[in-house]
Design a protein that fits this description.
Layout: H1 22-35, E1 43-47, E2 62-65, H2 71-81, E3 86-92, H3 93-99, H4 101-110, E4 114-120, E5 123-124, E6 130-131, H5 155-161, E7 166-171, H6 175-187, E8 191-197, E9 217-220, E10 237-239, H7 245-253, E11 258-264, H8 271-283, H9 287-292
Parallel strand pairs: 1-2, 1-3, 3-4, 4-8, 7-8, 9-10, 9-11
Antiparallel strand pairs: 5-6, 7-11
The chain binds thiamine diphosphate (TPP), iron/sulfur cluster and magnesium ion (MG).
């Protein structure tokens, strides 16, 4: 394979608004493919529906822009049939945590070997501003014209609680941190949940404080994700061992948002590996003996 460039990974004309955080996220995905020298023919970007879910159109690999909230079952089918394919799922906060919440639960629980990126812009943007599970209380949208009544769902705690084997958070405006997070997620065998704070300048410009250096704290560790130089000495940085689930919950619970690798459990069983090994064992059996086993 000849050396790929970013240019080679560009696909259709991008229709996101100027300044949208989604650009930074897909650039991170493209860099991941280049740096790890992945063959685009062996990569599938899969999504549901949303602004963020248009990502597969813009990355020159195989891809499916599927049904709202259903990227995980589609990715599961593909992974079972073709375990050699690298799968990256792109899902918005609505796609992942509203309509797709049930699939997220089972994707995390089954620990399918995929990278799952949740683009969190705090609302439904494709449909022009409706309240999502991560919308902050009091924020006005078309479906909550007097302000959202609920505190936002704590997605990090939720995924930790569902038994997530890799749980990390990063931000669209921090390219080095984002890329390192994606590399760790890709290297992890199992369901790698990557939460990304994402700017939506069109519908919710105040959702994330991206200009203040101390707006986010960092969790770091030699087995975790390093802190970009720009933020060192400017904000709170905590040494956190990613195997410490209790501490991960505690950081996810704090009001101050943290970026970094919250939790990693490399020992959790991977569903697609188990299914494939069971299938191989079953194929070795004598079919007639199996059928005769049901004789009454
Ligand atoms: C079954 C179904 N219900 C509702 C919709 C309408 N719809 C399209 S995208 C979307 C929400 C998108 O929000 P999010 O997942 O946060 O992605 P964003 O656009 O913010 O990136 C909704 C409700 C749909 N396409 N299909
Ligand atoms: S509406 Fe928001 S999320 Fe959608 S493309 Fe525009 S800036 Fe991005
Ligand atoms: Mg959204």
């Amino acid at each position: 394979m000849t050396q790929l460039t970013m240019q080679d990974l560009n696909a259709n004309q991008i229709r996101w608004c100027e300044g949208c955080g989604n650009f930074g996220i897909i650039n991170g995905v493209k860099k991941l493919i280049l740096d790890l020298e992945l063959d685009p023919k062996n990569v599938a970007n899969i999504s549901g529906i949303g602004c963020s879910s248009r990502a597969p159109h813009y990355i020159n690999t195989y891809g499916i822009n599927s049904i709202h909230g259903r990227a995980i079952p589609i990715a599961t089918g593909l992974k079972l049939a073709r375990p050699d394919i690298d799968i990256i799922i792109h899902s918005g906060d609505g796609d992942a945590a509203s309509i797709g919440g049930n699939h997220l639960l089972h994707g995390v629980n089954k620990n399918i070997n995929v990278v799952f990126i949740m683009y969190d812009n705090g609302l439904y943007s494709l449909t022009k501003s409706q309240t999502s599970p991560t919308t902050p209380r009091g924020h006005k949208t078309n479906t909550s014209p007097y302000g959202s009544l609920l505190d936002p769902l704590n997605i990090m705690q939720l995924v930790l609680g569902m038994g997530g084997s890799f749980v990390a958070s990063t931000a669209d405006w921090m390219p080095a941190h984002l890329l390192e997070t994606l590399k760790k997620a890709h290297a992890h065998k199992g369901f790698s949940f990557v939460h990304v704070w994402q700017r939506c300048p069109h519908f919710f410009p105040d959702y994330v404080e991206h200009s203040r250096l101390d707006a986010f704290s960092f969790l770091t560790h030699e087995q975790g994700i390093s802190v970009p130089e720009k933020y060192q000495g400017q904000t709170q940085i905590i040494d956190h061992q990613p195997s410490n689930l209790g501490a991960a919950f505690q950081y996810a619970h704090e009001e101050q948002p943290y970026l970094g690798l919250f939790y990693q459990n490399e020992a959790k069983l991977v569903y697609d590996e188990q299914v494939n090994s069971q299938t191989r064992d079953a194929q070795a059996l004598n079919l007639e003996d199996v059928i005769n086993g049901y004789a009454i």
